[in-house]
Amino acid sequence: MSKLGGTSVIFDLDGTLVDSEPHYFEAGRQTLAAYGVPDFTWADHERYVGISTQETVADWKERYGLPATVDELLAAKNRRYLELARSASRAYPEMRAFVELLAAEGVPMAVASGSSPEAIAAVLSGTGLDAHLHTVVSADEVAHGKPAPDVFLEAARRLGASPAECVVLEDAAPGAAAAHAAGMRCIAIPYVPAQADAPEFATAGLLLRGGQAEFTARSAYDWLAGAAGRS
């Protein structure tokens, strides 16, 4: 039996399993440029890290006074993102190793993401992570995206796990807040290091302030094993 006992692990996707934020930025930059907003910067993009694409484009419409509907903006951004995701998605090596370590021990795993189902599928297949990650929940499938707990609670339901048995891996403050609201423990790996002091991350059981540079599969596994022993 696994040293992790009855623990289930739920992964955020973008910025946690895969380095997809540059693709989201480029898709957003191209989409906004097409609608007459030519100066969207990485700093502008950072405010949307961790929230769903639907909520992102709804904010764009209001912030930039765009004439397009939210559905039109969503379709335009998703189309551009999928082109990038299919050709050039990269899993973080230590995250891939962690997934493989958990899979070898039969630990139940899921992905819970603010991306569309199509985007999630493209990234998981493009990186080969779909070999191990079969349970997937998109924010499009639930009533509210992060920081609401809906995606994580639905992932737990599909895994047949109680929230208290679940550990979430997250890179963004809204996701850490969602994990806490769901009653789940959290390993936080901030994508934007300057956000490591955000109050949402203070609720994490393990906070890796250095982000992916600090994350290793073995240390995460050892922390999970210790947490399982304490729970």
From TrEMBL:
InterPro entries recorded: HAD-like_sf, HAD-SF_hydro_IA, HAD_sf, PGP-like_dom2
In which domain of life is the source organism classified? Bacteria
Matching entries from PANTHER family are given as: 2-DEOXYGLUCOSE-6-PHOSPHATE PHOSPHATASE 2, PSEUDOURIDINE-5'-PHOSPHATASE
Instruction: Please report the name of this protein according to its UniProt entry.
Output: HAD family phosphatase
Organism of this sequence: Streptomyces dubilierae
